[in-house]
Amino acid sequence: MSKNIPEKVSNRLTLYHSIMVEYLEAGIDTISSPQIAQRLGIDDSQVRKDFKLLNNAGKCRVGYLVKDLKDSIEKTLGFAQAKDAFIVGAGHLGLALAKYDNFNSYGLNILALFDNDPQKVDMLVNNKQIFHISKLPNLVERLGVDIAILTVPRQYAQPVADFLVASKIKYIWNFTPAVLKVPPEVKVWNENIMGSFLQFACKDIIQ
Amino acid sequence: MSKNIPEKVSNRLTLYHSIMVEYLEAGIDTISSPQIAQRLGIDDSQVRKDFKLLNNAGKCRVGYLVKDLKDSIEKTLGFAQAKDAFIVGAGHLGLALAKYDNFNSYGLNILALFDNDPQKVDMLVNNKQIFHISKLPNLVERLGVDIAILTVPRQYAQPVADFLVASKIKYIWNFTPAVLKVPPEVKVWNENIMGSFLQFACKDIIQ
DNA sequence: TTGTTATTGTGAAATAAATCACAAAAATCC
DNA sequence: GGATTTTTGTGATTTATTTCACAATAACAA
Question: How far is CA B184 from the centre of its chain?
């Protein structure tokens, strides 16, 4: 079902999605590709090509139906098909992600958090319990979770990743700046916060 | 000085940088392109092409000097040339970013945080003071800051962005899911946390 | 009704990025 | 010293992405 959506496209799809949410809230029910393109500073034919991938036809002189677009973006990006995940590391970043209301609407279900700090264990964040990290292997198995969101300090990133691998976690969304070493069957997605911004900052700020 | 480094390249440069930090800590002083490539699951000639942009020659049968590579990545990405910034929104994400030790080493200097919650005002986070948002225009002017990192809840994103624009902020690093409307002279960088991950998650998890 | 205009959809062209393939260099081995 | 191997550097090729250009469509206005 889910085609090969290139990374750049799915990035734009989430931006389109935010605009759809905004338009819906404003009670506007159609939108045109030039409107979207101008808002994002991109080419309007690109917007149309992206929408083509969604199998969502527009209407000449009118544009696209906001509701339909929103739905098909959600379907294409798999918002519908909920995925369960654990947050590993209950520091500020872990807590911020646990509270991030958007995860849920994007189909990512945070079931619990893990930390090794006894002070944090058993606290509730956004209705999700913080467990001691030693409980993780058991809960991975019982709940069939295979995504871990890694938000521990850099120096613990590799040992904790090793522990996740041993616990049969299959996907690691890595928010730490460490480049993890994992066996080939485990997939890591590096959330490279600085990377893209630096390019932006350097291009414009340093001339 | 700073050439046009494409976004994808600067993304990879930060990953290379992390590997260099790790190798330096391990006391290893040379590294080869196939080693790096294998670690990141990319092509080794690409690593070499990226390093070409850094003007950093390697040595046949030996590889590259870790220290030199690290330095030239930092120079190219402008780590050296420190940039000052304010964090706007002292929720968990704002606090997490304020504590993110990596910002500093990447040349981004967080001078202060801003929030409208009187309870938070005057607190210190990682030695940075939280000010009431009303103090922002004055401090922007006095300190000559032109970067704002926006971490407020979605519903406040646009009005706060308007306020930042009126306060003469020139660059907004947008961590909210809202797509901001700003005049053309103000540059917005959308940190699209879900976008890239969804692609990763969908491709592999949903088949 | 008929012209005008805004908008989609899409091939073609241009641009950018990644991969391949291999010569040249230099360390190591025998 | 000469063969072998590892590794760089880089043109050539391939693949992916973006932009351009324009015909087709349908709303709207006179």
Answer: 22
DSSP string, B71-93: HHHHHHTTSSS-EEEEEE--SHH
C-alpha–C-alpha distance, residues A69 and A35, integer Å: 14
pLDDT digits (tens, 9 = 90+) for B163-176: 999 999 999 999 99
pLDDT greater than 80 at residue A203? no
Structural tokens at position A46: 């690109």
Q: Is the dihedral of CA B31, B34, B36, B38 positive or negative?
A: negative
C1’ C2 / CA A59, Å: 22
Q: Which residue is nearest to nucleotide D28 (CA to C1')?
A: A61
Q: Which amino acid is at B117?
A: D
Residue B62 Cβ < 7 Å to strand C: yes
| Residue numbers of A between 41 and 70 with CB closer than 8 Å to B | none
Could you give the CA distance from residue B173 to residue B190 in angstroms, rounded to a whole number? 6
Distance CA B39, CA A182 (A): 9
- Which residue in chain A is spatially nearest to B2 when comparing CA positions? A207
When pLDDT is cut at 50, 70 and 90, the band that residue B120 belongs to is very high
Residues of chain A contacting B201 with CB distance shorter than 8 Å:
78, 83, 108, 147, 171, 189
Q: pTM above 0.90?
A: yes
- The predicted pLDDT at position A195 comes to 73
The Cα B63–Cα B75 span in angstroms is 20
Q: What is the mean pLDDT of residues B120-141?
A: 97
CB contact, 8 Å: A201 with chain B? yes
Q: Which residues contact B169 (CB under 8 A, 6 or more apart)?
A: B86, B140, B145, B146, B147, B148, B186
**In whole angstroms, what is the distance from residue A177 CA to residue B191 CA?**
16
Tens digits of residue pLDDT in A37-61: 999 999 999 999 999 999 999 999 9
A175 touches chain B (CB under 8 A): no
What 3-state DSSP class applies to B193?
helix
Side chain identity at A191, as an amino acid letter?
E
Tell me A135's DSSP state.
Answer: G
